[in-house]
């Protein structure tokens, strides 16, 4: 487990590589990856999965399992550094492989998957619990619960194993293949690898959708622009250059805030009289929330209101979804309420075209 995975999402950090070391302890205490790892193992047990669990030591896994009373043994003689790095992840993965484990369950994001690809190559099968800020790779299950069910299928011999690509964002901000891992496959679907449409036609349609939405909105609208090129066209239509990987805000007076944190977003939408959110779909995966836009938390979405969210996706992106649903992978609300965006939602596929798709919980 990457103990600080996912912490940077609400802080508008695009991963934890740039995390201030002074906040390392806070990130570990936040326990985002730990909660999701435990959720996966709880579902594994609930569906009848049986296995002897060996955990990487300390904050790399064993601490989280001990706190959740999950039976396990911890690797000895491999204590991680006080501030864990990718070297600790690689060392733990190689040590687990040396113990002849049948599979490795890991919690993290694309960076963690990249480390595992370096450590393991295509040897030990892995099941990824999506816990990072970005998860473009197809080695991840759609949710922690799906990871638990997939692991149970593998343990029972109901899953085949094949190669899957590991994708990560490079120095130039472009997503590319950086390695490969072996993954189980069964009725429990892994997420697809993120795809990017760069066709001129798709770009033209995206700008037409954006122009139409901006023209139809009231001038008093506070615009929240989610990540992605399709939603980025809304920012351009509003007269600013969007960050594309972050969440931006354009106020009615024309001022712009770029790469806004979850806390600041909640402050803004709680007082803005007419906020609108432009929200895109991750190509090849169908995710609306939970992949690179953790700033858009359940409380932010609730404050905006589901009827004030504009979902944008070109027809080719919608047509590539299988099954044709949109997914949300977020931590459960503290009050037990379902996510406010679940249900059937209109998707803008052209300047005067739309379709209706069902938004579902990826954990279901």
TrEMBL record:
Domain of life, per lineage: Bacteria
InterPro entries, alphabetized: AcoX-like (IPR039065), ATP-NAD_kinase_N (IPR017438), NAD/diacylglycerol_kinase_sf (IPR016064), NADK (IPR002504)
Pfam families in alphabetical order: NAD_kinase
Keyword annotations: Kinase, Transferase
Gene Ontology molecular function terms on file: kinase activity
The protein, known as: NAD(+)/NADH kinase
Taxonomic source organism: Microbacterium gallinarum
High-level lineage: Bacteria, Bacillati, Actinomycetota, Actinomycetes, Micrococcales
């Amino acid at each position: 487990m990457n103990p600080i995975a996912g912490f940077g999402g609400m802080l508008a950090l695009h991963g934890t590589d740039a995390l201030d070391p002074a906040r390392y302890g806070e990130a570990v205490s936040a326990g985002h990856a730990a909660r999701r790892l435990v959720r996966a193992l709880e579902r594994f047990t609930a569906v009848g999965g049986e296995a002897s669990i060996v955990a990487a030591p300390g904050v790399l896994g064993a601490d989280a399992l001990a706190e959740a009373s999950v039976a396990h043994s911890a690797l000895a003689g491999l204590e991680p550094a006080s501030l864990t790095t990718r070297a600790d992840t690689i060392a733990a993965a190689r040590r687990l492989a040396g113990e002849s484990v049948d599979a490795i369950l890991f919690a993290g994001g694309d960076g963690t998957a990249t480390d595992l690809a370096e450590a393991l190559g295509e040897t030990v099968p892995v099941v990824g619990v999506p816990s990072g800020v970005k998860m473009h790779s197809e080695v991840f299950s759609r949710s922690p619960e799906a990871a638990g069910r997939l692991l149970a299928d593998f343990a029972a011999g109901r899953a085949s194993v094949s190669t899957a690509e590991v994708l990560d964002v490079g120095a130039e901000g472009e997503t590319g293949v950086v390695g490969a891992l072996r993954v189980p496959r069964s009725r429990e679907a892994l997420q697809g690898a993120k795809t990017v449409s760069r066709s001129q036609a798709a770009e033209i349609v995206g700008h037409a959708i954006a122009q139409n939405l901006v023209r139809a909105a009231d001038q008093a609208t506070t615009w929240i622009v989610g990540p992605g090129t399709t939603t980025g066209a809304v920012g351009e239509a509003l007269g600013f250059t969007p960050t594309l990987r972050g969440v931006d805000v354009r106020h009615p007076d024309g001022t712009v805030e770029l790469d806004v944190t979850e806390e600041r977003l909640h402050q803004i939408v709680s007082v803005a009289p007419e906020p609108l959110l432009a929200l895109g779909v991750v190509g090849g995966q169908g995710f609306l929330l939970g992949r690179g836009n953790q700033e858009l938390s359940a409380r932010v979405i609730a404050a905006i209101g589901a009827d004030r969210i504009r979902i944008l996706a070109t027809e080719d992106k919608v047509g590539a979804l299988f099954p044709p649903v949109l997914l949300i992978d977020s931590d459960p609300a503290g009050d037990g309420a379902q996510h406010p965006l679940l249900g059937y939602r209109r998707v803008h596929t052209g300047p005067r075209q739309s379709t209706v798709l069902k938004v579902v919980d990826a954990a279901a």
